[in-house]
Amino acid sequence: MIANLKIGVVGPCSAGKSTLVQGLKQRGYPNARPISQEHSYVPYMWQRITNPDVLIYLDVSYENAQKRRWLNWTPDEYTEQLIRLQHARQHAHLCVDTNPLSAGEVLEEVVRFLEARG
Question: Is the whole-model pTM more than 0.90?
């Protein structure tokens, strides 16, 4: 059942995790959760925080992340986030490149994926 589906959303800072989760909740997925895995040195933190039925990975470039929300971080710190996210990315059911997409397009892609899974 959709309402019971636990959805975890991971990705680097400014990838759109919170925005996607808000959209998913509005579309009938109340158990969607953003997971701030990018700040943890524990590779499987996403499992400990949420242990989702479905894991969505949102990808964003350093340049686009800075355009979306300026953060006082360097390209090396961004790269460190990607390293911390490797385990989650490898286990994600869906990876979405958010760079060329609007927030609405990301939401639609994820909803189509979830609906196709049943």
Answer: yes
